[in-house]
């Protein structure tokens, strides 16, 4: 039985097979029986590499942070995470610098975390907003037919735990519900290219 530590683009923590391309951290979310008892324990939601300096962890060890897993970086962004400043220093710096250029002021981890915290939740629910489909960069996620779809070129790709599973044409215009927080969308529109699961390229041919 898979552990409840996979994160969907809706930000939900679910029990699904596979671990994806990235790990994340929101603090200690599980109890001693490795059951999820909260969805967040801090504002600093980060997305990390699966391997870093040979470190090894026991997944969901008691009294240690809960290892969360994402299909890819675009999924992590949709859920409200940002690059880790330690294990992904170069990605973090690029994300921070583009964030600063979008907002017209220097960015710090604390500032970005506070803004993302406001953008990713509406109380305990995932915050979504409407935007024109044509304005969204590759890597953003939208909601269609109650499912999460990745914007990728001229297509929308349906998220699944093991990879992108379905393709449909991207709307040329019109309003859509967006899952990815506004600030992360702005950073991607400014030039940050989120890492995408290889299944996207195979499906996008």
Notes on the structure:
The protein is an alpha+beta fold and 205 residues long. It contains 5 helices and 14 strands. It has helices spanning 73-79, 89-103, 109-120, 182-189, 199-203; strands spanning 4-7, 13-15, 22-25, 46-48, 68-70, 82-83, 121-122, 125-126, 129-132, 141-144, 147-152, 155-158, 167-169, 175-178. The strands form 4 sheets. Strands 9-14-10-11-12-13 form a 6-stranded antiparallel β-sheet. A hairpin with a 2-residue loop joins strand 7 (121-122) and strand 8 (125-126). Helix 2 (89-103) packs across helix 4 (182-189). It is globular and about 50 Å long.
Task: Give a quick summary of the entry.
The protein is an alpha+beta fold. The protein has helices at 73-79, 89-103, 109-120, 182-189, 199-203; strands at 4-7, 13-15, 22-25, 46-48, 68-70, 82-83, 121-122, 125-126, 129-132, 141-144, 147-152, 155-158, 167-169, 175-178.
Beta-strand share of residues: 15-25%
Low-confidence stretches: none
Distance between the termini: 34 Å
- From the alpha carbons, calculate the radius of gyration and give it in angstroms: 16 Å
Largest sheet: 6 strands, antiparallel
Query: What spatial form do the alpha-carbon principal axes imply?
Result: globular
> Count of helical segments?
5
């Amino acid at each position: 039985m898979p552990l409840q530590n996979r994160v969907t683009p809706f930000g939900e923590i679910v029990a699904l097979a596979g671990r994806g391309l990235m790990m994340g951290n929101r603090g200690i979310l599980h109890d001693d029986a490795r059951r999820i008892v909260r969805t967040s324990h801090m504002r600093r939601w980060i997305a990390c590499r699966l391997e870093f300096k040979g470190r090894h962890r026991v997944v969901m060890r008691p009294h240690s942070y809960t290892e969360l897993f994402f299909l890819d970086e675009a999924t992590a962004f949709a859920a409200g995470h940002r690059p880790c400043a330690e294990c992904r220093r170069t990605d973090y710096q690029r994300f921070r610098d583009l964030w600063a250029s979008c907002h017209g002021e220097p960015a710090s981890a604390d500032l970005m975390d506070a803004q993302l915290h406001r953008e990713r939740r509406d109380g305990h629910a995932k915050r979504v907003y409407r935007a024109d489909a044509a304005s969204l960069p590759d890597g953003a996620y939208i909601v269609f037919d109650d499912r999460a779809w990745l914007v990728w070129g001229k297509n929308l790709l349906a998220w699944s735990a093991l990879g992108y599973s379905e393709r449909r044409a991207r709307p040329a215009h019109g309003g859509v519900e967006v899952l990815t927080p506004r600030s992360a969308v702005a950073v991607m529109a400014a030039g940050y290219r989120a890492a995408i699961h290889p299944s996207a390229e195979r499906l996008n041919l």
